[in-house]
Automatic annotation (TrEMBL):
Keywords: Aminotransferase, DNA-binding, Pyridoxal phosphate, Transcription, Transcription regulation, Transferase. Gene3D superfamilies: Type I PLP-dependent aspartate aminotransferase-like (Major domain), Winged helix-like DNA-binding domain superfamily/Winged helix DNA-binding domain. SMART domains: HTH_GNTR (SM00345). This is PLP-dependent aminotransferase family protein. Pfam families: Aminotran_1_2, GntR.
């Protein structure tokens, strides 16, 4: 960033901060976020420093202002930066945490660089207070005791047979998938599984992939990094709009689609039975491949979770799942399910597998019933927490629409006319409330936000303490009124 003179009055601006974006195959917004985090961690931008206005930084870096405002907004929502009316965006002052890393002295060991806001309404995070640490530790101990010496150095290219068998049996029971142990590949998680699948698709000649719009951006980015062009398909209250999905290949030649049939993120829809059948029929008609992201499918509160789409057409559907939403992404374990005929047809790329010890621990964790016991307990907590959240929203923000089926760990809140989610997010960050803007999950910056939905927030309740639900919503209501007053 070029050197600029500091203003005569007001806070010290971080004009001299170098923010290299690099040329990695990831969105500019994410690269800018990482660069800002790194500059703060290294002490290049010290606490109290104000970052350049978004327009100035965008001009300096040669990027759109949207890239900068989105990066700033996300970091503000996480509490990493703060936005104060009249003072811009700055690095907050935090209590001293030991030795100064920027001065070259050692940092305190095993300490996180930042904490999530106390009132955590950010989506995509499970209840970290209830991770079954003791049961997992016991599974690891059993794995160590049970593994023969020879297997400590053997790595099966598809995963350890014990893990593949346990996952196959679990998915057959819980998701009614049509799966045998030989159909399972053990992965480091859903993102890792997606990376192998899309690399295989690209090698098999695919050049584009249909994606829901809006949807979780990380898997779209993985597809783009592999050389596949994401083709957005709108989503409504019944899931992906199949008519639009069927039309898209005529324009793009796409014969692969990434879907979340059980619980769409972020709109919260379940793919209707008629559309499930239509999607499978389309895949047969075009000799296509469906990638089913089983996103938080275990959590349904008004009925049993719907069966996996994979059960309707195992020869066409690759089912991708992980422990990230049921336990935590820290476990780094997941799976992809596809018969060998489908794996060979798309040339599924072999990738490094999780450690043998972790895989066998997963097998013990599942076969001992610990995973399903944990999920039953989590469903009860999330059902009660969701009900409390809806009650608080009805009380504090009457008239605002809350959408999404009774499932998962998030809901969507529509905002009053004239109020932008970005303004609410900034105001909420000053009240220690983390929220997410629906626009963040659009497939393209210019795309419509599904099914006529206007400005909205995606509210997560997975990692929110039950005791803080009412206050979190009360503070959110203050943030919305603040944003409303600012627009008056």
């Amino acid at each position: 960033m070029p050197r600029r003179p500091a203003p005569r009055t007001g806070p010290t601006l971080a004009w001299e901060t170098l923010l290299p974006l690099g040329d990695a195959p990831t969105p500019l917004r994410d690269r800018l976020e990482r660069s800002i985090r790194d500059a703060v961690h290294r002490g290049v931008v010290p606490p109290g420093s104000a970052l350049p206005p978004s327009r100035v930084l965008a001009e300096t870096l040669g990027v759109s202002r949207w890239v900068v405002t989105e990066a700033y907004g996300q970091l503000v929502a996480e509490g990493f930066l703060e936005a104060v009316v009249g003072s811009g965006t700055r690095v907050p002052h935090r209590p001293a945490r030991g030795p100064d890393v920027a001065a070259g002295r050692a940092a305190a060991p095993l300490r996180a660089e930042y904490r999530r806001p106390r009132f955590d309404l950010g989506p995509g995070i499970p209840d970290l207070r209830h991770v079954p640490r003791a049961r997992w530790a016991e599974a690891v101990r059993r794995a160590l005791d049970a593994l023969p010496d020879g297997e400590l150095m053997v790595v099966d290219p598809l995963g350890h047979p014990l893990a593949r068998t346990a996952v196959a049996e679990y998915l057959s029971r819980s998701r009614r998938a049509a799966v045998a142990p030989d159909d399972v590949v053990i992965t480091h998680g859903a993102t890792d599984a997606m990376a192998g699948v899309v690399a295989g698709l690209r090698a098999a000649g695919h050049r584009s992939i249909l994606v829901e719009d809006p949807s979780w951006g990380r898997l779209r980015e993985v597809a783009a990094s592999a050389g596949l062009t994401p083709v957005p398909v709108p989503v409504d209250a019944s899931g992906v709009e199949v008519d639009r999905l069927v039309e898209a290949p005529a324009r793009t030649g796409a014969r692969a689609a990434l879907l979340t049939p059980a619980h769409q993120f972020p709109l919260g829809a379940a793919l209707s039975p008629a559309r499930r059948e239509a999607v499978v029929r389309w895949a047969h008609d075009v000799d296509g491949v469906l990638i089913e992201d089983d996103y938080d499918a275990e959590f349904r509160y008004d009925r049993r979770p719907v069966a996996a789409l994979q059960g309707l057409a195992p020869e066409r559907v690759m089912l991708v799942g992980s422990l990230s939403k049921s336990l935590s992404q820290a476990f780094g374990l997941g799976w992809a399910v596809a018969p060998s005929s489908l794996r060979s047809r798309i040339g599924l790329v072999e990738r490094a597998r999780p450690s043998v010890l972790d895989q066998v621990a997963l097998a013990h964790f599942i076969t001992a019933g610990d995973l399903e016991r944990h999920l039953r307990s989590a469903r009860g907590r999330f059902r009660r927490r969701r009900a409390a959240l809806l009650d608080a929203l009805a009380r504090e923000l009457p008239g605002l629409p809350v959408t999404g089926i009774a499932a998962g760990m998030h809901a969507m809140l529509g905002l009053p006319p004239g109020v932008t989610a970005r303004d609410v997010r900034h105001a909420a960050s000053g009240l220690e409330v983390a929220v997410s803007d629906l626009a963040r999950y659009r497939a393209t910056a210019a795309s419509a936000v599904g099914a006529g939905v206007g400005e909205a927030l995606v509210l997560g309740y997975g990692n929110l303490s039950d005791a803080l639900v009412d206050e979190a919503v009360a503070r959110l209501a203050v943030a919305i009124r603040t944003a409303q007053d600012g627009r008056a």
